[in-house]
Design a protein that fits this description.
Elements lengths: L4 E3 L4 H11 L3 E4 L5 H6 L7 E4 L9 E2 L5 E5 L4 H5 L2 H6 L1 H8 L4 H6 L2 H4 L7 H4 L42 H7 L3 E6 L2 E6 L22 E8 L7 E6 L10 E10 L2 E10 L6 E2 L1 H7 L6 H11 L11 H22 L2
Parallel strand pairs: 1-3, 2-3
Antiparallel strand pairs: 4-5, 5-8, 6-7, 6-8, 9-10, 10-11, 11-12
Bound molecules: iron/sulfur cluster.
């Protein structure tokens, strides 16, 4: 392992000043569940590590506000997942956290950094021996002609089809969440839907964050569809696995008709993927299983499967349909 300088700032302003000073080889350390992994794999080799875990002001969260839910970036995943009000009012957000990783990891990982976890593509994580445009720009993509069972059906490019691996970010995208950030240039807000980039020709550039930008908090506008929501995750094993396909959905019904629909997809796209196609199929229609099936199919109409990932088209459509039926049941509860 390379030696590195370890810093522990006491304010967010000190933290962004430190990362600006550290340059491109400086990294923030939050829960460490991703950074430590990537350092062991040789993907990351920072010269400066800025430990932000003592920035207590960023560890609070509030799910009772009249207009929005606010999650400090350093709130622990396990604490947020267990919040009673969140479980009742926005089950999709709570479930997205519960279904991620293991309890030990959720106890360490923070909700801000979780948004930035990197792909699980085996070639990306497998070492320098593999061509990987994300790890080594310009080297090619071993997954294109290789084992692409987990690759993205939506948002991929000829340079990279790596899936965005997160759950929480998918649920946040369904609810039009926003992240507030701080850099030496001041604060700004970014919709979660605009935070992650499709790979295009530069898969190594994964987000719209600047290198010296710190996520302070996540804000979720209150939605009447929150109570009738779910995060449905299909994976190879029932626990501690990444999604083969997932769907964060929320609906609001009026006299049996869908007045509002929110659908976001995980495990099948290069970034948290909002499916306006599925939402358009649902909105204004009586909420029947047939309409839910059509919405699932619409979500994958533009899918481009690879050699071994065609099964995910049907799997993804069924995941959306099943999620919608769970949400309908919740919408009909008094
Ligand atoms: Fe690398 Fe992306 Fe290809 Fe995987 S899919 S090998 S991450 S370029």
């Amino acid at each position: 392992m390379r030696s590195f300088t370890y810093l522990r700032p006491s304010t967010p302003a000190e933290a962004v000043a430190a990362i600006a000073d550290g340059g491109p080889e400086a990294r923030f350390l939050a829960g460490g569940t991703t950074l430590h992994d990537l350092m062991k794999l040789g993907v990351e080799a920072p010269l400066t590590i800025i430990d932000i875990t003592r920035l207590d002001a960023l560890a609070h969260f509030d799910t009772a506000g009249p207009d929005e839910l606010v999650f400090g970036a350093l709130a622990r995943m396990s604490d947020v997942a267990a919040d009673r009000r969140l479980r009742e009012d926005y089950p999709a957000l709570s479930e997205a956290l519960w279904k991620a990783a293991s309890q030990q990891l959720r106890n360490m990982a923070r909700v801000g950094a979780n948004l930035l976890q990197r792909t699980r593509c085996a070639y990306f994580r497998g070492g320098e021996v593999f061509a990987c445009n994300k790890r080594r720009p310009g080297s090619g993509c071993a997954a294109l002609d290789g084992l692409d069972r987990g690759s993205a059906l939506l948002g991929a490019s000829d340079a990279c089809a790596a899936v965005y691996p997160g759950d929480w970010g998918v649920a946040l995208a369904a609810f039009d969440a926003v992240v507030d950030t701080l850099s030496p240039r001041g604060e700004r807000s970014i919709p979660v839907r605009d935070l992650h980039k499709e790979p295009g020709a530069t898969p190594d550039v994964e987000t719209t964050l600047a290198a010296d930008e710190l996520i302070l908090r996540i804000r979720v506008p209150r939605s009447e569809a929150g109570r009738a929501s779910t995060y449905h995750k299909i994976r190879d094993r029932a626990s501690y696995a990444f999604a083969l396909a997932s769907a964060a959905v929320a609906v609001r019904l009026s006299a049996g008709v869908v007045a509002e629909a929110r659908v976001a997809l995980g495990g099948v796209a290069t970034r948290p993927w909002r499916s306006t196609e599925a939402e358009e199929v649902l909105t204004g229609q009586p909420f029947t299983e047939e309409v839910a099936q059509r919405a699932g199919q619409a979500a994958f109409a533009a899918a481009r499967p690879g050699l071994h990932s065609a099964f995910k088209v049907e799997l993804g459509a069924r995941t959306v349909t099943d999620a919608l039926m769970i949400a309908r049941e919740r919408a009909e509860q008094p």
